[in-house]
Amino acid sequence: MKTRAVRMYGEMDLRLEEFELPEIKDDEILVKVISDSICMSTYKLVKQGKKHKRAPQNIDTNPIIIGHEFAGDIVKVGKKWQDQFKPGQKFAQQPALNYKGSLASPGYSYEFFGGACTYCIIPQEVMELGCLLPYDGESYFEASLGEPMSCIIGGYHANYHTNKQNYHHAMGTKEGGNILIMGGCGPMGLGAVSYGIQFENRPKKIVVTDVDDAKIERAKEVIPEEGAKAKGVELLYVNTAKMEDPLKELMEISEGHGYDDVFVYVPIKPVAELGDKLLAFDGCMNFFAGPTDNQFKAEINLYNVHYTSSHILGTTGGNTDDLIEANRLAAKGEIEPAVMVTHVGGIDSIIDATKSLPSIPGGKKLTYTQFEMPLTAIEDFERLGTTDPLFKKLSDSCKKHRGLWNAEAEKILFDHFGV
C-alpha cells in the first residue's frame, strides 16, 4: 500500500513524499491516520536532527515519519492481535513506549510509524505494551490531543505533598489548595486549567499568569472564570508584566498562604525563580516546560527546602493510564482539549508549520492528513468565509462552540474533502 508522509532526513530537512509501505507482519497493524497535532517536541527534533536522542543515525538514508500526536482508523490487523483489534476501529496511541530501555518512539525513530502520514504500520511493541488504545469518542482530533493532555494529567498526578508523621507522600496536587500555573495561557497551560477545575483533588483556587493581554483575553473566553466558579474553583487570570511587584501581588492573591502547587509552563529562569519564591509550606513546584538548553539553570531556595519542606520536580510525557484518563474525560465532555487548538490545516501544511512553530502565534496546530489545506487560524475563518463557503460553515460552527474547534467542524471538513 502507498502512503504519503512527512519524513525527516536531517536537521530542518523535511520532505512530503509518497512511497510504498511493506506488507504488515503477523504481529503488526496497519492504520489510516486521520488527525495529527503538531508538538513543540517535534520542532526540537527537527532542529537537532541526528543529535536528538530519539533519532536514528541513519535518517539520511532511512528517514523517519514525524508526528506523534495522532489518531485514526485501524485498517488491517496481523494474526497475533486479531482477538483484540478489528478493522474499522478508531484508535488513539501512547507514544511514550520505553520498550526494553529503548528511547525509540513514533514520530522520532520509526521508518514506517508516525503521525504525519496517510497510512502507517504500528509495530508489535506498541500492542505488547498496551499503548494502542481503542477510542470511542465522536471526533478524531480529541484523540490526537489525548497525548498532550496525558502529559498535563501526568503532571497533576506526579506532584506530591509530604506527611511529617510517617513520611508518606500524598500523590497529586493538594486538595483544596492553591495552584499557580505560570505562563499558562498557551495551549498546554489552558489544557492544565481545563483539567485542574475537574481533577479529583480539586483546588480551592487556580491562578494563571501570562504577559500577553491577547492570550489572557482568549483564555477568559474559552475557559471563563464563571465556569470554573460553578465547579467550586476560583479561577483568576493575571498579567504579571503589569504588576509593580509580581512576588508581592501574587502572594496577596493567595491571601498570604502561597501556592501549594506551582506549574512552570515556560522555560524562563526568572519565572522559575519566582515560582520557587511563591511556594507555600510543603509546596511542590513542577517544572513542566522543556528547555532546549541542556545547561538551563535557575536558583532555588535551599533554606526553604530544609525548613518549609518545599520541593521541586519535573515531568515530561504521560503514561498509558494518563492517556486513558484523557480520552475518557474528553469523550464524556469533562475536559475540553479543543481549548488548545488555534490553527487547522492539511498534510501539506505540516512541514512549514513544524519548522516555524515557535514563530506562529496562538496555540496547537491541528492537521488532518487525508487532504491538503493551508494552515489557517480559527480566528480567520469568519473573514475567509465572506468569499469561501467552506470557511463560512467552519466559522459558524466554531461560533456555536465559544470559538473552539469541535466535532461538527471536523465533520464539515471531512464532508468537504470526502474523507
Structure write-up:
The chain is of the alpha/beta class and 419 residues long. Helix content is 30%, strand content 25%. The chain has 15 helices and 19 strands. It has helices at residues 40-48, 124-128, 141-144, 146-158, 187-196, 213-222, 225-230, 246-253, 269-277, 302-307, 320-331, 350-355, 381-384, 389-399, 407-417; strands spanning 2-10, 13-20, 29-38, 64-65, 69-77, 90-93, 119-122, 132-134, 160-162, 169-171, 178-182, 205-210, 234-239, 259-264, 279-287, 311-313, 341-346, 364-368, 376-377. Strands 3, 5, 6, 7, 8, 17, 18 and 19 form an 8-stranded mixed β-sheet that branches. The chain has a 6-stranded parallel β-sheet with strand order 13-12-11-14-15-16, with helices on both faces. The protein is globular.
Helix content: 25-40%
Poorly predicted runs are none
Broad shape: globular
| Gap from first CA to last CA | 18 Å
The biggest sheet amounts to: 8 strands, mixed
For the CA atoms, what is the radius of gyration? 22 Å
**Beta-strand residue percentage:** 15-25%
- SS summary, helix count: 15
Number of strands: 19
Mean pLDDT: 95
Structural class: alpha/beta
Task: Please supply descriptive tags for the structure shown above.
25% strand; 419 residues; alpha/beta; 8-stranded mixed sheet; 6-stranded parallel sheet
Ordered list of secondary-structure elements with their pairings:
Layout: E1 2-10, E2 13-20, E3 29-38, H1 40-48, E4 64-65, E5 69-77, E6 90-93, E7 119-122, H2 124-128, E8 132-134, H3 141-144, H4 146-158, E9 160-162, E10 169-171, E11 178-182, H5 187-196, E12 205-210, H6 213-222, H7 225-230, E13 234-239, H8 246-253, E14 259-264, H9 269-277, E15 279-287, H10 302-307, E16 311-313, H11 320-331, E17 341-346, H12 350-355, E18 364-368, E19 376-377, H13 381-384, H14 389-399, H15 407-417
Parallel strand pairs: 11-12, 11-14, 12-13, 14-15, 15-16, 17-18
Antiparallel strand pairs: 1-2, 1-4, 3-5, 3-7, 3-18, 5-6, 6-8, 9-10, 17-19
Helix pairs in contact: 4-5, 4-11, 14-15
